[in-house]
Write a structure and sequence with these properties.
The complex is a heterodimer of chains A (532) and B (486). With 532 residues, chain A is mainly alpha-helical. Chain A has helices at 2-13, 18-51, 58-106, 116-132, 135-165, 171-191, 194-228, 241-282, 288-330, 336-339, 353-357, 375-382, 396-400, 404-410, 425-430, 439-445, 461-473, 491-502, 515-520, and strands spanning 364-368, 411-414, 479-483, 507-511, 523-526. Chain A has two domains: 3-340, ABC transporter type 1, transmembrane domain (ABC transporter transmembrane region fold), CATH 1.20.1560.10; 364-530, P-loop containing nucleotide triphosphate hydrolases (Rossmann fold). In chain A, strands 2-3-4-1-5 form a five-stranded parallel beta sheet, with helices on both faces. In chain A, strand 3, helix 18 and strand 4 (507-511) form a beta-alpha-beta unit. In chain A, helix 1 (2-13) crosses helix 9 (288-330), helix 4 packs antiparallel against helix 9 and helix 7 packs across helix 9 (288-330). The chains are: A mainly alpha (532), B alpha/beta (486). Chain B: Keywords: ATP-binding, Membrane, Nucleotide-binding, Transmembrane, Transmembrane helix.
Chain lengths: 532, 486
């Protein structure tokens, strides 16, 4: 059940308007109905017309159903077109919302223990996962609901048509009731198998990934050993167990689905056989009306075959979607605060750096320590980008009382490796923020180009870093946290950067190894000082 | 492969004949019920239903077995390919193997569609020549549309794919920058950017789907119209008493069945193409020809390029050279390295290499099952003290590295950084003349970086070729090649 709840929650979070959903449901239901009408309704109509006693004109008896069939055949493909277009529109609208969700969520990931390469993989995988989630609407919800609705309507139409034909026959209510009950039962049983489906998908994906990794590792090793000229490399390769296991898992899962298919087909086939038996037994077959009832049984029961197939594909898509969602929700290291769902405190306090670092505003503070002593982590913690940091900061409660928005207003942070969105200069530097200082003089002070067509993401490493400083400084924060601002820069570039930085009114907290920079600061504090 | 495709064809022929028979039984069953011959009619319908069920089951089971067999053979082939040293692209191989596997059943569909056309004979017989001719003519007329639909789908899928790739790269950039965006308090701005890109892409996608579906629907339309016209023909015959109800129904249901089979085959258009391409990819994994260089040069490259960069690389690497290749990620640094050492053909230009053995160190260096000594001394036996000296030179000390006889069961026993250093050690112990380092500096902290750089500096005869993204091992390269995006 929890898997269905998960899907339901995600559907709710997609924030698609009710109108879009209804339109898509309607389109799919109508398309489904027209398909039913053509495959089941057409022969029924022909037969009924043939046995129709009330129409005297034989031309009418045939022409009316034929015209209806013809219309159905002609309208089927445009209906199907509308169905698909509406469904895709719905899927795309939902995916847009989920992409926004992912973007916000990634902002809380810390990537601390994640190497650079796997970080990209992680993001790429999440992006792909979100793309596939279209199926939640496209292949699960819409088909399941629409098929059920169209099934009920089809039954209703058949009953109505036959009731007009053969008043007084008692067989229909019993038969239709049984049929509905069986269909409902199959639906419940099938959908209760979601957890099983989820498990099968999970096993398959894990096995695939493991198998693929193994294959990949072998390819890497083969390259390395052959370039070394190592002979007899074959002896270093053992059997591809994981890859083998994947193939077997795939085969097992396939067999399971095949069994489900067989079970459904058997139920549907049995329904046809039993339905007609019941109808024959219950009703003395003496009249044409009776035959109509039997035809009803056969035709209505054969509707279930189509219905079950749609449900089964819905189940499979649901299983895939659940595994994808679980993966998305579990991915990324989020801070304890976010994971616990704890909201940001909203109490507004006057921001005062003096209380935090026990220094006068506008000081330049160097935070020093050997490589690997956790300077960067500490700084990220101060910027509240890392939950571990808060405890390391003296008077940390003070920063924690600020809401996220206020914190960002007062505190600027520039990492060693800044990232940009990949657009042009003005957008990159302003980022939709208001109340900014003019960026042109700042950029000029840092010796940067102010040509609006420049893309900071494509600039050299040093320029990127300086653009990131400008980006943070235009918001005029009172406290500016800088992570190794001079690392990897040439001497001229370093002097320029220090000069421009020192022109700022903000309090600077700088983690660094650079002796020149340390010498320029008012005070150098070892990072250990801040550990409780 | 021949045997299994023959089996598929036979399966398609037999199952289609059975299904056509079932359709005829079903039709006559209904007709009999209407003529109040209940017992026979009832039996016919039941037999038809059971026949269909059994056929579906046999087909599904046989195809599964075939698929399993092909998967096994493909897997073995794949395994042989991966062992080969030319560094095939594993992702391409894997997807090729999958499409070959998924291609099972296409031949079944083809033979089934062909066989179903035999059903036109009873259609002719029961429904009259006009029915058969109308149906055949419309199906034939829809063939060019099928082909066009396939092409349109292909084109639009290419357009959609490029748009999707664009969206993915926008997203990737934005997601990558989200840490910065949070520190700047601009999460909303960034997510709005993603939403805008997503909406733009949805628009293109819908347009692509519209084009592809529009084309495909014409064919569906023709199919539906063919059935409708046949129904019209037999209906009027029925009306004028020229045809019995049974014959009319027989013709109609057969036509529906034939149409379904032909459509199923046509819809497998992409599956068919993919499978064929998969086979092609698996069979033609060529090894790039390596031209031996002459003279003292270890490696001579002349105007070598890779697809994603516009930089022409011309260089001669000699003993003791330190060459650094830089450039943004995705510009093709790894591809260039592979092209330079002859693991793949360059996009253009030529590369000649005499250097053997070559050390190849990458971010995901692997270890095989065996002792640590086996893993390190792959070329020749080396004294324990020499091995330990190299290891400690690279900063690999402590109990985990001092016992060379310990068995490595899984590469994940060591961290990525340690494995990269073990790969360097393996290369140094194999007396390589050229060490190729593919962007591993990011795995080391500052201190380790210095240690490794110092160790490499001690080997003054060794030529080092390093590709680096932002951090680098080579502090003072003798040559720096900067790749620019195309």
């Amino acid at each position: 059940m929890s898997s269905w709840r998960l899907l339901l929650n995600w559907m709710k979070s997609s924030g698609v308007s009710r109108r879009t959903i209804l339109r898509s449901l309607l389109a799919t239901t109508v398309a489904q109905l027209s398909a039913n009408a053509l495959s089941i309704g057409a022969p029924l109509l022909l037969c009924l017309a043939w046995t129709q006693q009330h129409w005297d004109n034989p031309l009418q008896r045939i022409a009316v159903p034929l015209v209806i069939i013809e219309l159905l055949a002609f309208f089927r493909s445009p209906l199907r077109y509308l169905d698909r277009m509406h469904a895709h529109r719905l899927g795309f609208a939902a995916v847009t919302q989920w992409r926004v969700w992912l973007t916000r969520r990634v902002a809380t990931w810390s990537f601390r223990s994640t190497a650079n390469t796997s970080r990209a993989d992680l993001l790429q995988q999440s992006i792909g996962d979100i793309d596939h989630l279209q199926d939640v609407w496209l292949r699960v919800t819409i088909p399941l609901v629409a098929s059920m609705v169209s099934f009920l309507i089809s039954l209703g139409i058949i009953v109505e048509v036959l009731a007009r034909q053969s008043a007084g026959v008692q067989g229909e209510p019993l038969f239709i009731g049984t049929l509905l009950l069986v269909a409902l039962l199959v639906f419940v049983i099938l959908m209760s198998q979601l957890n099983r489906a989820v498990r099968s998908v999970r096993v398959l994906r894990q096995a695939h990934q493991k198998g693929f990794e193994e294959l990949f590792d072998r390819a890497q090793l083969a390259t390395e050993l052959s370039l070394l000229g190592a002979a007899a490399q074959d002896q270093h390769f053992d059997q591809p167990q994981q890859y083998e296991a994947w193939q077997q898992a795939q085969s097992r899962v396939e067999i399971w689905w095949r069994r489900v298919d067989l079970a459904l087909a058997t139920v549907s086939g049995t329904l046809v056989v039993v339905a007609s038996s019941v109808a024959i037994k219950d009703i003395a077959f003496t009249s044409t009306e009776t035959s109509n009832t039997i035809v009803l049984g056969v035709l209505a029961a054969s509707l279930t075959g189509e219905l079950f197939a749609i449900w089964r594909h819905g189940l499979q898509a649901a299983g895939n979607a659940v595994v994808t969602i679980e993966g998305l929700e579990a991915r990324g290291e989020t801070s304890a605060r976010e994971r616990g769902g704890e909201s940001w405190p909203t109490k507004v306090t006057e921001f005062n750096v003096q209380d935090i670092f026990a220094c006068t505003p506008g000081s330049r503070i160097a935070v020093v320590g050997p490589s690997g002593s956790g300077k960067s982590t500490w700084l990220r913690g101060v910027a509240n980008l890392e939950h571990a940091g808060a405890t390391m900061l003296a008077n940390s409660t003070y920063l924690n009382t600020l809401s996220e928005n206020e914190l960002r207003q007062h505190v600027g942070y520039v990492p060693t490796e800044p990232h940009f969105l990949g657009t042009t200069l003005v957008d990159e530097l302003t980022l939709g923020r208001t109340n900014l200082a003019p960026w042109v003089p700042l950029a000029t002070a840092f010796g940067l180009s102010t040509d609006p067509s420049v893309r900071p993401s494509e600039c050299s490493r040093g320029e990127r870093h300086r653009y990131a400083l400008v980006r943070a400084m235009v918001a005029e924060p009172e406290l500016l946290l800088l992570d190794e601002p001079t690392a990897g820069l040439g001497n001229d570039e370093r002097q320029l950067l220090i000069r421009a930085l020192w022109a700022s009114k903000a309090t600077l907290v700088i983690t660094t190894h650079d002796p020149d920079l340390i010498a320029k600061c008012d005070v150098a504090i070892p990072v250990e000082t801040f550990r409780g | 492969m021949n045997r299994s495709s023959r089996l598929e064809s036979i399966l398609g022929i037999v199952s289609t004949l059975v299904v056509l028979l079932a359709a005829m039984l079903f039709a006559s069953g209904i007709a009999e019920l209407f003529s109040d011959i209940h017992q026979t009619g009832f039996a016919s319908i039941q037999i038809a239903v059971v026949l269909r069920l059994v056929t579906a089951w046999v087909v599904s089971a046989t195809l599964h077995r075939l698929r399993h067999g092909i998967a096994r053979r493909t897997r073995e082939h794949l395994w042989q390919l991966v062992r080969r040293p030319n560094g095939p692209d594993v992702a391409v191989l894997d997807s090729a193997a999958t499409s070959v596997r998924d291609g099972v059943g296409v031949r079944y569909l083809a033979s089934s569609a062909a066989t179903s056309l035999l059903g036109l004979i009873p259609v002719w017989y029961f429904g009259g020549w006009l029915s058969a001719v109308i149906f055949l003519a419309l199906i034939a007329a829809s063939i060019p549309f099928y082909i066009r639909a396939g092409r349109a789908a292909e084109q639009s899928s290419a357009a959609v794919a490029s748009r999707t790739a664009l969206l993915a790269s926008t997203q990737l950039r934005t997601l990558d920058a989200m840490g910065d965006m949070r520190s700047l308090g601009t999460i909303e701005y960034a997510s709005e950017r993603v939403a805008t890109a997503s909406r733009a892409s949805a628009h293109t996608n819908l347009e692509g789907i519209r084009v592809a579906m529009g084309s495909a629907l014409i064919t569906e339309f023709i199919g539906g119209a063919a059935i409708g016209l046949v129904a019209m023909v037999v209906g009027f015959d029925l009306l004028h008493g020229r045809r019995s109800l049974e014959h009319s129904l027989l013709a109609l249901l057969l036509v529906v069945e034939i149409n379904a089979r032909v459509r199923a085959w046509a819809n497998a258009f992409h599956q068919r193409e993919d499978a064929a391409q998969g086979v092609l990819r698996l069979t033609e994994q060529s090894i790039a020809p390596v031209t031996p260089a002459v003279g003292p040069a270890l490696l001579t490259a002349s105007e070598v390029t890779v697809p994603s960069s516009r930089t022409l690389v011309t260089t001669v690497i000699q003993a003791g050279d330190r060459v650094l290749i830089t450039g943004p990620s995705g510009v093709g640094k790894t591809q260039l390295l592979r092209a330079l050492v002859g693991l793949r053909a360059p996009f253009s230009g030529t590369s000649a290499i005499t250097a053997r053995p070559i050390g190849w160190v990458q971010a995901d260096s692997q270890l095989f099952t065996g002792t640590l000594r086996d893993n390190l001394c792959v070329k020749r036996p080396v004294e324990t003290s020499d091995v330990l000296a190299v290891l400690s030179g690279l900063g690999l000390t402590g109990a985990r590295f001092s016992d060379l006889e310990q068995v490595v069961t899984s590469a994940s026993q060591y961290s990525d950084g340690e494995r990269a250093r073990l790969a360097i050690a393996r290369a140094l112990l194999a007396d390589v003349v050229l060490l190729v380092i593919d962007d591993v500096a990011g795995l080391f902290d500052q201190e380790t970086l210095h240690t490794v750089a110092n160790e490499l500096a001690r080997h003054s005869d060794l030529a080092v070729l390093e590709a680096a993204h932002n951090r680098r091992i080579l502090g003072a390269p003798t040559l720096e090649i900067s790749l620019e995006r195309a």
